[in-house]
Amino acid sequence: MRELIYYAAVSLDGRIAAPDGAFDAFPVEGDHMDAINAEWADTVPGLLYEALGSTAPRGRFATVLMGWNTFAAGLPLTDDPYPHLEQIVFSRSRTSRDVGGSVRITADDPRGVVADLKGRPGADIWLCGGGVLAAQLRDDIDRLVLKVNPIVFGDGLPLFAGGYAPESFVLERSRAFGSGVVMNEYRRR
């Protein structure tokens, strides 16, 4: 069965973006990028592969899920961030007419969409963000892969923007990089 994997960059204080949604404070250079490019290559935006004159590899993920604000953060650059994946954006106020590319905008219940996706054959499902969507899908997340960055935001968008409801995960792998980034991989207990 396909897994829902919340793969995200996070600050030391649990923030995935600044209060205005920007995430440019996270380092994009360093030895951690080699691991991302090798092991999580299908999470790299299509624009980067286009600039390099290559195509994105497929394999780990078949689908990416985003809330509108996560998707909108990339709109100044592209309205089709991951053309190599099935892209589903959740919004109650936007429709697919608001974007181009192969992005599907839906107001459907995220848990129902994930249940349907998990029932289909194929590669895993990537929950890209944001924190509100992650909170709605918390019970459906099979794995967390957190790129913990050596930076404190002090304020901003949390990894999970929902009510208090403790969930247990088991650390399966942790790798520290010279850049200061630590990649932690957890599985639901």
From TrEMBL:
GO terms for biological process: riboflavin biosynthetic process. It comes from the Bacteria. InterPro entries: DHFR-like_dom_sf (IPR024072), RibDG_C (IPR002734), Riboflavin_Biosynth_HTPR (IPR050765). Pfam families: RibD_C. GO terms for molecular function: 5-amino-6-(5-phosphoribosylamino)uracil reductase activity. Residues 4-182 form the Bacterial bifunctional deaminase-reductase C-terminal domain. This is Bacterial bifunctional deaminase-reductase C-terminal domain-containing protein. It comes from Microbacterium trichothecenolyticum (Aureobacterium trichothecenolyticum). The lineage of its organism: Bacteria, Bacillati, Actinomycetota, Actinomycetes, Micrococcales.
